[in-house]
Amino acid sequence: MEKTAERDVKVYEIGYLIVPSIPAEKIAAEISTIKDVLSKHKATVLSDETASLRSLAYTMVKKIGTVNRRFDSAYFGWIKFEAAPVEVRLIEKEVKEVESILRLLLINTVREHTLLSSKLDIETSDKNMAEGGAKHPVSTEDMDKSIDKTVSDLTVA
Amino acid sequence: MKQNFLSQNKVAYIDYKDIEVIKKFVNPHGRLIARKRTGVSANHQRQLANALKRARFLGLMPFVVR
Description:
Shape of chain A: elongated
Number of domains of chain A: 2
Helix content of chain B: 40-55%
Order of helices and strands of chain A: HEHEEHEHHH
Helix content of chain A: 25-40%
Oligomer: heterodimer
Shape of chain B: globular
Largest sheet of chain B: none
Strand content of chain A: 35-45%
């Protein structure tokens, strides 16, 4: 019974924030430190996203040495992996001990690709701003037609 | 937003990294909108709540917007 429990694996995901004081060239090294911890605990990486610098929604505080440092931005990345449940708490503990990790989230997840924004092509406000307006330019004729249709639908209803 | 966006697109799992999706169900103060208003199923509302809490923890979403 114990042997089967050991062989059982579940899918987990680690979402992490790395302090922005680390130069961009050294981020790969930090990520490989996390991946080393995973491989040490016989976890299989299923998918991941390389950490990229992004601004945070609120200021986070991390005690480095004796000083409380405040961060408004961080490198955010995630790794989806498969591991035995008994190993997961150890993985979390060890990754948290990495000095450059600002914050860590370990969750149960599913094996399938879960990001909807790429699947459904949800228009982001940033994208719209960058492209200078609507994704598909609409002519005034088309707009008039659609308004007429909506009005006729409403009157019928 | 009475049409259920999540059910229409047959969403099975709401990811905390999908900020654009979560933002559709959050009010200008950063609070989750009641399903009475959004029309999402109870299951999706629970998933949204979880995803929002995770996104807040990682600083992807704010706890409060003043």
